[in-house]
Amino acid sequence: MAIPIEMPKLSDTMEEGVLSAWLVDEGEEVSAGDVLAQVETDKATMDLEAFDEGVLLKQVIGEGDAVPIGELIAVIGEAGEDISDLVDDAGGDGAAEPEADPDAEVDPDADAEDASAEPEVEPEPAPEPSGDGQLSERTPEPVPAGTDAEGRRIKASPLARRIAQEHDVELAQVDGSGPEGRIVRRDVETHVEKQEAAPESTPEPEPTTEPEPAPQPEPSVPEAPSYAMPDEEAAYESEGITQMRETIARRLAESKYSAPHYYLTVDIDVERAIEVREDLNELAEEQGRAKISFNDFITKACALSLHDHPYVNAAYRPDEGEIHKHNRVHIGIAVAIDEGLITPVIRDADRKGLSELARETRALAERARDRDLEPEEFEGATFTTSNLGMFGIEEFTAIINPPNSAILAIGEIRDTPVVEDGEVVPGKRMKVTLSCDHRVVDGAKGAHFLDTVKSYLEEPMNLLL
């Protein structure tokens, strides 16, 4: 019996996936646990495993295609099994196949796409001469949707066909970049962008039969310098939107416009914390342990503070009519990668020492940049931190990472004059800004939380107790 393989939900925020590479060819045998393909989600590239054994009968989508969760991407079954009904019901390549002759022999190894090819169209008759002796063009007959001018079915992914239909785009006009010229989503989107950017064509004047006047000599005028851009220089570069960028845009827009944000900023004296960190790193080097970053101090300070301020470690659940105050502390660390932003999660951060936090944070950040995280490593954060201090940013505000109720934005450590005992002396300060969801965290609650974080960083020995 044929078994459909559908696009799985590989992360909590995933709505569609891109099949980045097939690892098994059609006709190959597979067993349960074999990796069929690699799928790019909004957060990582993950393996798609088979849960049954059989033969990969059909790759329904091609490499580079993006399809929604639950859509058919492959079929596994017994060699020679007829899967046309299954592929047609799921949309297949988006074109219905003609009814088969029941008396005709069926080649089990034939490609389903070849079987759906329509009969050849008779060639158009040659143009006939018009009354004035010129060749007149005949109005071409309409071509069935999803076929080219010669009646051949156009290869295109289901998503590409849907986008083309939404924008009234003829697939025959689109150049495919997928395997064997298959049209995928980015091809249709690029075609639509070019259509929207193209200027309206100006109709050429009709030729006149009147004789042209003899050319008159023109006065010599110095030619004005031309400042026009070269024709080959484009006004902009087009870049497709990745799965990660789509998810970032959607989720943060939802957060910004659904959660009433407000912001609290404090300036923290970190001179003592810097001294303690230097002493600890000397010990870490002697013992062969990972060096502790200042961000590890902040992670530990936030983790301990969240115990005393449960509403900051909570989630607003309007669909359930509840506020969930989490009993455990899982801190997401925002990590910038080429495609966007991802937040690997330090679980039970309050129960881990600084050295363990340093080692785990560095390992997760490295795997995040390689897009090699497992779902459990980037899901389930109860609070998030974002640090731009290493880029020289003194102060900024961050958008809350839903469903969290707060996020801490961390600025750079700066040298600044401070007043101590009536005298101006050099000091080291750092500004942090807490973005709060006012539906959960009132102003006083957010202020008390920041005061606790500040006390831990200004008296860092308390982090070691």
UniProtKB/TrEMBL annotation:
A cellular component annotation (GO) from this entry: pyruvate dehydrogenase complex
Catalytic activity line of the entry: N(6)-[(R)-dihydrolipoyl]-L-lysyl-[protein] + acetyl-CoA = N(6)-[(R)-S(8)-acetyldihydrolipoyl]-L-lysyl-[protein] + CoA
This protein's name: Acetyltransferase component of pyruvate dehydrogenase complex
GO molecular function term, any single one: dihydrolipoyllysine-residue acetyltransferase activity
Cofactor entry: (R)-lipoate
Keywords: Acyltransferase, Lipoyl, Pyruvate, Transferase
Peripheral subunit-binding (PSBD) domain mapped to chain residues: 155-192
Functional description taken from the UniProt entry: The pyruvate dehydrogenase complex catalyzes the overall conversion of pyruvate to acetyl-CoA and CO(2). It contains multiple copies of three enzymatic components: pyruvate dehydrogenase (E1), dihydrolipoamide acetyltransferase (E2) and lipoamide dehydrogenase (E3).
Documented EC number(s): 2.3.1.12
Family assignment from sequence similarity: Belongs to the 2-oxoacid dehydrogenase family.
Domain of life: Bacteria
Acyltransferase in keyword set: yes
Record's compositionally biased regions (Pro residues): 202-222
Entry note: cofactor: Binds 1 lipoyl cofactor covalently.
Annotated region (Disordered), positions in chain: 84-154, 190-227
GO BP, one annotated term: pyruvate decarboxylation to acetyl-CoA
